[in-house]
Amino acid sequence: MDQGRVLEAFRLEAGELSRAVAGLSESEWDRPTRCEPWSVRELLGHVRVVIAWLPQMLGGLAPDKAEVSAAQYYRPDDRFSPQTNAARIGLAQNHAAEHANGAALAADFAATWRQVDQMCQDEPEDRVVRTRHGDAMLLSEFLLTRVVEVAVHGLDLADALGREPWLTPEAGVAVLELLLGPEQLDAAGELGWDGPTFLRKVTGRATLDATETAQVGRLGIRWITLG
Predict the structure, then answer these.
(1) Residue 169, preceding peptide bond in cis (omega within 30° of 0)
(2) What residue segments make up the domains of the chain, in order of their start?
(3) Against a cut of 0.90, is the pTM above it?
(4) Distance between CA atoms of 106 and 41, rounded to whole angstroms?
C-alpha cells in the first residue's frame, strides 16, 4: 500500500477518534475497556504513545534499506513478552495521569496525530525508519501499523463508551489488507461481515462460531496474530 493512501487512512481514522472523544465527561473517561487494566483515558493514552514514537524515528538516522514489513512487525518475539507488556501498560497509564483531565488528554492526542501527519507528508515514498524494537521498515509500512492501533483501539473505545463504531472505510480496508493480504479481500467479502465486525473477529475481540470457522477454512483465509 502506497504511503499517500496509508497516510490518508491514518489521518481520517485519527480525526474520527478525536471527534469521538471530544466532550466526554470525566466519568466516561474512567470507564473500563476490554484492554485491561486500561480505562478509556489510559487506552487513549496508549494510542497517543504509540503514535508519538514517529517524530523521534523521523529525526533519527535512516537505515539503508527496509527489512521488515507491517505483517512481520507483529511477529511474536520480545515485543509481546510480559516485561514489554508491563512497560506498555505503564507508559499509557503514566501519560494519561500527566493530564489534568480528559479534555487535556484529548487535545494532546489531537495535536500529536496532526504533527505526525504533517511530518509524514514531507517524507519521500521510499523513506525508511527504525522502530523502537530495532526494525528497519518503510515509513508506509510502519504507518500501517499505526492505522491498526487507531482503528482497532477505536473499536475498543467505542464499545467501552456504548457508541456505534466510527471506523472509516479507508482505515478498515487498510487494516484488512494487512491482516489478510490483498489477494484475500474478495474471499473475505463472502463472509458478509461489516468492517467493525470483521476487525473484531480477526483480532479475537469477537469469537467465530462453528459455521464461521468452517467458512473461513473453506475460503482459505489466514490472518496474523496481533499479540
Answers:
(1) no
(2) 3-163
(3) yes
(4) 9
The CATH-assigned architecture of domain 3-163 is: Up-down Bundle (1.20)
- Residues sharing a CB contact under 8 Å with residue 174, sequence separation 6 or more, in sequence order: 1, 5, 6, 9, 144, 147, 151
The identity of residue 25, as a single letter, is S
Read off the DSSP letter of residue 156.
H
CA 142/CA 131 separation, integer angstroms: 8
3-state helix, strand, coil in the chain (%, to 5): 65, 5, 30
Reading the chain (227 residues) residue by residue, the pLDDT tens digits are: 899 999 999 999 999 999 999 999 999 999 999 999 999 999 999 999 999 999 999 998 899 999 999 989 988 777 778 888 899 999 999 999 999 999 999 999 999 999 999 999 999 999 999 998 899 999 999 999 999 999 999 999 999 999 999 999 999 989 888 887 777 777 777 788 888 998 898 888 999 899 988 888 887 776 766 65
